[in-house]
Amino acid sequence: MRIVKAYCVLILFFVLTFKGFAQLEKGHFMVGGNISFEKSKTELPQNGPNVSDHKQLTFSIDPDISYFLADNLALGVVTPFSYSKNSNSMQDQASKTYSVGPKLRYYFPSGRWAIFPEVSYTIGWNTTEGSIFSPDVGEVIEAKAKGNTSMFSGGLGGAYFINDHVAIEGVLFYKKYQLDYEENFFTDVDISSFNFKAGLQFFL
Question: From which residue to which does the signal peptide run (predicted)?
Fold first, then answer.
């Protein structure tokens, strides 16, 4: 969890340091990111094989840096990292994904508040390992596979400037996520969903 610790230290540094007005004008930089956490449980019907309910835990952090091409318009790079764990009585898997891609955001400020639409597109690299039931051998085996990911995200957010260079924000967004494995141990992923994330941005 070194990434999380480094992110928290960076947040504390900026909150204690900056005391000017928020800079949404052309020529300034924006540094920050969002954190999201999700935990779910899917109850399965108890007919057929005795498989327990499916549990999933997902954590993601999205550091980014952007440059204001014009007043209120920022173009940047986002470098998401995510960790997920899926389990039931037949499998127990952990997955890590590192991604990178462009991000575009436009602010509509009003006093200390601002709303913004944003879009991003990332490509990434995934590693998944753990136990999985193999129909070929008829039992649970240990497997590891690598894959490639792509994700489109678009949403609408709101920001509140807690001091002149630091803003708390929340974003409600839609994402289209695909994961294609190089090996056939695990099932490819293709999902669309609505999500919420929260974080901080620092304006330099």
Answer: none
DSSP notation for 129-194: EEEEEETTTTEEEEEEEEEEEEEEEEEEEEEEEEETTEEEEEEEEEEEEEEEESSSSS--EEEEEE
For the chain, list the domains and their CATH numbers.
Answer: 2-203 (2.40.160.20)
Q: Which of 170, 155, 173 is nearest to 201 (CA)?
A: 170
Q: How far from each other are the two terminal CA atoms of the chain, in whole angstroms? A: 27
**CA–CA gap between residue 139 and residue 148 (Å, rounded):** 27
Q: Which residue type does 11 have? A: I
**Which residue type is seen at 79?**
T
pLDDT-derived band at 132, boundaries 50, 70, 90? confident
199 - beta bridge partners? Answer: 34, 169
DSSP conformational letter for 49: S
**The model's pTM:** 0.80
| φ, ψ of residue 10 in degrees (nearest 5) | -65, -40
Residue 85 has pLDDT above 70, yes or no: yes
